[in-house]
Amino acid sequence: MGLPEILITFKTKGLTAIQRSERGIVAVILHDETEGGETLTVYNSITEVDFTKWSERNYDYLKLIYEGVPYRVIVYRMGLEDTNYMPALAVLKNMKWNYLTIPGIATEGVPSIASFIKEARDQDHKTFKAVLPNSKSDHEGIINFTTDRIDSILSKTQFTTAEYCARITGILAGLSLARSSTYYVLNDITAAETPDDPDKRIDAGELILVFDGEKFKIGRGVNSLVSFTTDKGQEFSKIKIMEGVDLYQDDIRDTFEDSYVGKVRNDYDAKQMFVAAIRAYQKSLQPDVLDQSHDNTAAIDVEAQRLYIEGRGIDTSAMDDTAVAMYNTGSRVFISSNVKFVDAMEDLNLVCNM
What CATH number is associated with residue 199? Predict the structure, then answer.
């Protein structure tokens, strides 16, 4: 594949980012021993679900997920008494999905799922996320849903916090990057246990439901991250921001693996064309994903290349940045980007002068 075609691929990914983000993939683990059910099933629509192969409650969970209109739902079936999620996670780890949910998960099962998500993101560079009940994980990959006792027209019986995670997962997977989940209205809810201290809960990394006197809605679209660092600032606690970050990483990584690895020479000119493709992609993500007022850019990472060269025992003290950038780095490609992701309007400070 030639470089011009690769440039078009990048531009197309950018231009379709919003549409693609509206159709995320949900992975769900269900405990079910209904006769005739497969261990692993992939559904593209709720109409494909054979309700005779699921318990009534699990069918309710699938309907909850599809209320958010995700692109695809991957279902892994486990035994009713099985509490070992490792085999299921081993299978799902090699598949492509955005959000994981385990409706009705027991309290003791939550930490192992949170650990899996953290490891997948921090060590394996996956962009997996999970909606878990009462999970103070302090991590951008975990959405800590805490609202309980939810009455919904989508079920004959009340949903617990752990069960309604399925609904939240479907919403987040199907929500456009052009907006956040803050104040997303849940028209199916007729009653829920809402907190008296919503601001405190949100600041503690909880995704809660609130009632505005007429309707129930998501208080603020936050994940469980509360310990901010230089590498992970407060913006990393926003679900919308993390969706943009994950989309950005996935698109560039997937395009590099599909269109560059083994197919394009690794010299200075080819690297610069790769950089140009990334810049074109960044521009197409404006204004809904990247801040158009920011200088979103990319370049050959000169400092990383300098370290690479010196690691091979070569003195670079007499080499300027251009010489370092043009140095042959074998099969290694060092690129750095500078971008700023844009949030949605959520807070109003209105001064009325009379």
Answer: 3.40.50.2300
For residue 10, count CB atoms less than 10 angstroms from its CB and return exposed for 0-12, middle for 13-18, buried for 19 or more: buried
Tens digits of pLDDT across the chain (354 residues):
344 454 555 556 655 654 555 569 999 999 999 999 999 999 999 999 999 999 999 999 999 999 999 999 999 999 999 999 999 999 999 999 999 999 999 999 999 999 999 999 999 999 999 999 999 999 999 999 999 999 999 999 999 999 999 999 999 999 988 899 999 999 999 999 999 999 999 999 999 999 999 999 999 999 999 999 888 899 999 999 999 999 998 888 888 888 888 999 999 999 998 898 899 889 988 998 999 999 999 999 999 999 999 999 999 999 999 999 999 999 999 999 999 999 998 887 878 788
Domain count, the chain: 2
CA–CA gap between residue 318 and residue 150 (Å, rounded): 68
| Within-domain flag for 83 | yes
Q: Please choose, from the candidates 239, 235, 208, the residue with its C-alpha nearest in 3D space to the C-alpha of residue 223.
A: 239
Q: Report the predicted TM-score, pTM, of the whole model to 2 decimal places.
A: 0.90
Instruction: Report if residue 8 sits inside a domain.
Output: no
Domain extent at residue 154: 23-174+183-218
